[in-house]
Amino acid sequence: MPTRFDHVYLAATGRFLPGEPIDNDAMDAYIAPLNRVSSRIKKRILGENGILTRHYAVDAEGTTLFSNAAMAARAVRDCLDAARTRLDAIDLLAAGTSGGDALMPGFASMLQGELGAPPMETLSSHGICASGVGAWKAAAQAVELGTPRALVAAAEMPSRLFKRSRYAAKDYDADFDAHFLRWMLSDGAGALLLSNTPAARDDVRLRLRWMHQRSFSGDYPVCMQLGLTHDRSRSHLDYASWQDAEADGALFLRQDIRLLPHLFDVGVHEYARLAHDGWIEPASIDHFLCHYSSERFAPVVDELMAKAGLAIPRERWYSNLVTRGNTGAASIFIMLDEFVRTHTLVPGQRILCFIPESGRFTVAFVLIEVEAADAPVESASRSVPVVSNGDDGAVAPPHDPADAPAALRHVLGELATIWHGYRSRVWRTPLVRRLRDRRFTTPDYVQWMQHWIPQVREGSKWMREGAASVRAPYEALSALIETHAGDEQDDFMILFDDYRKAGGAIDDIDALRRNPGGEALNSYLHALAATPNPLGLLGAIYIIEGTGQRIIPALLPLMKASLDLPADAFRFLDYHGANDEHHLARWLSAVEIVLAHDADGHGAQAIVDTARRVADLYLMQFDHVTTP
Prior knowledge:
By secondary structure, this protein is α/β, with parallel strands linked by helices. It has helices spanning 36-49, 68-83, 107-115, 131-144, 164-168, 176-180, 242-247, 260-276, 298-307, 321-324, 331-342, 409-426, 430-436, 442-468, 475-488, 491-501, 516-529, 537-562, 571-596, 602-623; strands at residues 3-4, 9-16, 22-23, 53-54, 92-97, 121-126, 149-156, 188-195, 204-215, 224-225, 254-255, 287-290, 317-318, 350-357, 362-372. The strands form three sheets. Strands 1, 2, 5, 6, 7, 8, 9, 12, 13, 14 and 15 form an eleven-stranded mixed beta sheet that branches. Strands 3-4 form a two-stranded antiparallel sheet. Helix 3 (107-115) links the parallel strand 5 (92-97) and strand 6. The longest helix has 27 residues, at 442-468. It is globular and about 75 Å long. It starts with a strand and ends in a 5-residue tail after the last helix. 50% of the residues are buried.
């Protein structure tokens, strides 16, 4: 649930970008390519991220010109100058960064010292891109509770990690994950002044309406990290010395780019959940400030939002990534400062900020409202939008067609919420944790298939039973379910063949048994299929086919990397990852048939309720997959 604010205003913004802009050719003087492989990686990454200039707080010899705290201090002073406020008028200093100049003490304390600030409350927020938002939210909560003024700062200085000497010292032909961020990240700092009394900016003022931050670190492996070995099995603190840790590559800043697409999938799911709950109304968003690390990801976010029926027109988007670079936790502050200084804002406009963090997946959203300078202080110019429970909501799961008819939007929104929770829980099951932790073995894979084959075998049976139970006025639904059952009819044989190729010892497919979760799922679906007009089966298909399209493709690379098995031992998983999207398009047509005759809403509710139950049962099946 987002945190709503009634008495928090953005009194001023500030930023600091060290030195002159550095273009792509001049980069080599600071973080020169190490070899021909590195040069090719540089060309590829810069071609995708779209960054043309950035700033470094080191010179060409690698000498530090501005510390991280010094950059933050300059951004703070820029912010205070804009507000015409003195430092001794500040009550709280909150600061966020991925890494300060010292391991201890906290970054806010170091910043306070750099500023020579008088005694005040401080708060340090540590993380990656979302650490600045964490500091921002903590400061906003303090202001809402009565603290008159709070400063928020975020700064990043990754250039010190990217010096050629750090790589050359090991004579290390660094892997792609270690190369990647050298060409992505740069230095800078930003700051905000929050106040519980409005401060006019020309004829308008900026009011913080709500903030939302949610971490999914329990769901996914580490994606971006510093201080662990490449396989994440050992910390730099586990070595006899930091010299040994550096020699073993434990002090390279790494990004697992294979996981990155899931960050935006998670982020847009959270965006859809907020929209469905009434916190975001896309049509009312006038400016969308999206922090993405690469221009390549902008169309990815746009496409996912469009598929969810929640698109914000691209002409309303704002980013300064191309000219300012990716400054991590400071990016949204630098972006917001440049935005408000270069745009004419109009009372009633809403500014939505989206900040995803790839460290271990965190997403954050901030809604700011533009008010007239003389608007009443006690109430907002417009209330936070509330999306009704009717068909005027605009939410659909991202794995459904983008042009879903308006009549489907409410039920798709309900299903999207169920899916979001289900996906998160799947990634925390023992089976998937083994995959994530690189502990997944061939016996694990064989055991999983041994439990799964008899369930897949029953799939076409309960579908056909369900089709036979369909009555008027849903006759057209029967044919669609029958077609789908036909597609699924022989899938279990592909899976059984994979099982045998992976070393499965049971020759007779009839001797395979479901685990308790699979048995419960099978019993439930057969019993439901035998009832008249079992419309809820569409909810079951949604979860099962969605698992094939969205979860299996994410697990498959981890399996292939963990298991020494031939490619044809994964045919079933390869097939479903590529084809379940077509099955879901057919599913959408089936839902349309139900809703066309669903005046009382019972059919839609049956679909949603069954999806929720099947998600629980599917998770039970995952939980019971264990090696003998």
